[in-house]
Each structure stands twice: as C-alpha cells, then as structure tokens.
Design a protein that fits this description.
13 helices; two-stranded antiparallel ribbon; mainly alpha; 312 residues
C-alpha cells in the first residue's frame, strides 16, 4: 500500500521559467529616447536649416531678390570671393599655431603640476583658473593689457623699448602674436586639465621598472608617458582645433577682424555677412562649407591617428 501511495503521489510542480523577452532589452533605449529626441531636434533642425538656406537667395532687407539659388552661393564662394580663400587660409593658420602651442605648453604644465611639491594644490588652481574665465572677460583683460595708454606697451616705453602710444592690436606686424598670446592664456589650461587627468592613471610601477632597467627620464617620457597619453592628446587636439576654427568672441572683441582684415577668420566673416549685410543665404553657404571641411578633416585625423586603437 505504501508503495502504491508513493507511486500515485503527483510530481512536484515546476517553477515556470521566466522568458527574457525583447521588452527588457529595449527599456534602456526607451528611457533615453526623450532626451535623445530633444538633442536630435536641437542639433538636426539648425543644421538642416543652414543647408536649406545655403541653396536660397535670402536677404530680409531685399525680399524681392529672395528665391531658390541652387549652387550659386557655393560657386560664388569658390570662384568670385577672394575673401573666402583669404579668411579660410588665416583660419587654418590660426588653428595650427594655437593647437600646437597650446598642446606643448599644456603638456609641460601638466607634467609640472603632476609632481609632488609644496603648494601643488595652489599651483594647479592657478594653472587651471584661466579656463574658468569667459571669452568676453578674457578679451577685456587682454584689451587692458594691450592698451596703448595704460597697458604693457606704456611700461615698455618707460624702459626705452618701443615708443609711447603704440598699440600691438592695431599694427599688422604685431597683431597676430598679440591675439595668439591672448588665446594661449585661455586655451593652455584645457590641455593641461585633460593631460593631467590622464597622467593620474599611469601606473607608478612602470616608472619604477624603467628606473631599475636604467632608463633615463627622457626615455621614460617617450616610451611610457607619451604612449599612455596618445588618446588624450588626439581627442584634446581635435576638440580644440574645432573650437579654435570657430573662434569668434576673442578675435571679434580684441580686433574685430582688423587691422585691414589681418585677423578675420572664416567664422568671423560669416558672422559679418549675416549680421551686417543680412545675406543669410551666402552666410549659410559658407557655414555649410566650413561644416564639411571640419567633418572631413576630423574623420581623416581620427583614421590617420588610429584613435582608440593599439599601436603595433
């Protein structure tokens, strides 16, 4: 009987297995979808609007001339506007000089404040403080420094260097070094911050092992520090190159593109065409050209530098 009862006992119920459907996998995307749509709207709409107006003759002050232009604005830029090529050439010169100098000075400062010494926290705060200053305030500071009556040229004249009333911002021979110096003061901390943050993650064991093997400080820098900083340097130079290409506030406040157009970049000319001449169609065409140039150069730079990859 016991055996029969044991045989007749129903088997225990199995806990049903939960099926992992598609809904849980889609949940993260659904949660970020509202923010993603907002970002897409704020980015896509202005970009598409610029491309649309680049194909139009659009000047609110001359509505009778408005209408579809096709590629006329682009043809004008490449064939009938010498200022386009001149300002584009200066923009490339400005970006090259600023990015290279900011990278070199930023790397040196990052290596210095990465050392252990008394007052390091204060030194880091002083090094990074210019980055927290707005562009307009930076321009105001350097306008006072370059002022011909109360600025540095006045004190140099008191020492017998130069003459009174000289303004470096109004002289074609000195305006470029002057604006480069002002932008260096603001841009160097950007590189110093990023490079210092990456330096903090370098293992001390690598340097200790290199010292045991007899490697000099210079060899340690080129074989340990620089390879570790590769991605940080690539990313920071790319971001800074884009920002410097689009630089408007400092140059506009210091020189307004002068003297004689010596410091007029392509974005500064675009702003002048749109705001002063109200030719939004042509300004949009120049903006589209600048966008394509930056996009193409960024893609080529990332591919050539092998950003995120491992060196063989």
């Amino acid at each position: 009987m016991a055996h029969a009862a044991a045989v007749a006992k129903p088997p225990p119920e199995r806990t049903p297995r939960r099926r992992t459907g598609a809904a849980p996998r889609r949940l993260p995307y659904l949660l970020i979808a509202p923010a993603g749509l907002l970002m897409l709207g704020f980015i896509a709409y202005p970009v598409l609007s610029v491309f649309y107006y680049s194909l139009q003759h659009y000047n609110p002050t001359k509505p009778w001339r408005n209408g579809f232009a096709g590629l006329d604005n682009f043809v004008t830029a490449f064939t009938a506007d010498p200022e386009f090529w001149r300002t584009l050439g200066f923009s490339l010169q400005w970006v090259a000089v600023e990015v290279v100098l900011q990278l070199l000075f930023g790397l040196v400062l990052a290596l210095l404040v990465n050392q252990t010494f008394a007052g390091r926290a204060l030194a880091r705060a002083l090094v990074f403080s210019p980055w927290a200053v707005s562009g307009v305030l930076t321009s105001t500071i350097w306008l006072l420094i370059f002022n011909s009556q109360t600025g540095i040229t006045r004190y140099l004249a008191d020492l017998g260097i130069g003459s009174y009333g000289t303004s470096w911002l109004s002289d074609t021979a000195t305006v470029f070094p002057a604006v480069v110096t002002a932008e260096l003061w603001r841009g160097v901390p950007f590189f110093a911050i990023l490079i210092l943050a990456d330096l903090q993650s370098v293992s001390k064991d690598l340097y200790e092992a290199a010292e045991v093997d007899g490697a000099s400080r210079l060899r340690q820098f080129f074989h340990i520090t620089l390879p570790h900083l590769k991605d940080a340097i690539i990313l920071s130079t790319l971001l800074r190159a884009v920002w410097e290409f689009n630089n408007v506030d400092l140059l506009y406040t210091l020189t307004g593109g002068g003297p004689a157009g010596e410091t007029t970049t392509l974005p500064l000319r675009i702003a002048s065409i749109a705001v002063d001449s109200h030719d939004f169609g042509y300004a949009s065409a120049l903006t589209s050209i600048a966008f394509v140039i930056l996009l193409f150069c960024s893609i080529v730079y990332l591919r050539v530098s092998k950003f995120g990859g491992q060196d063989k």
